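The authors assume throughout that readers already know how a fold can be written as discrete tokens. Each protein is reduced to its one-letter sequence and a matching series of backbone shape codes. I therefore recommend that a typical entry be quoted early in the introduction. For illustration, here is how one protein appears when written out as sequence plus structure tokens:
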Amino acid sequence: MAYVIDSCFHWIGYHMVQHLLNKGFEVIGVDALEDEKKEALYMFVGRNSCFQHFHTLGEIERYSDRGQIDGIIGVTEGNLHDYPYGQIKIADSIHELQESKDIENIRVPLSYGEWMPRDETYGFPGDHQIVMEDLVESESACYIEDFIKEILEKVTGNTHRTGGKSNDIAARDLAGHLNDHFQRHKHIYMAGNSM
């Protein structure tokens, strides 16, 4: 079973890629490697034998003719009106995703997690600037892994697939974990920020 993730090196798309790979699925990632952050994220998954990378959806259309793709998921940036924190688009074909026809649109909630645009103090969900500590403690915000797990279980229809490692981060201090992750990979975070 293979899933296409469009914008696979967007911070939310990357979580989807990781989640699917950890569950044993094949992933076809689509994203232009246009900055150092995307290149660095590619290096984390590029050698996984279950991951293939293409720069555009047009490059992979040949796969859809043979029925090798089980689902297409697109991640888009937020906009001020309908989807302030981003949008997940679920389609059955590349053509449907490109034309935005017969797709399911899911609003990304206010979220936080590894690889999100941020600096030492602030997280930048959508066009917002929020103190990271406040974001993590906010009852209206969710950890991106919780949201991704729910979406991908719906898309794959499989909640009990074996082969992945469990994410036990909920039992730990999440704010501390996110700050440690930021400090460890600061050069990558900062390469992707356009501040």
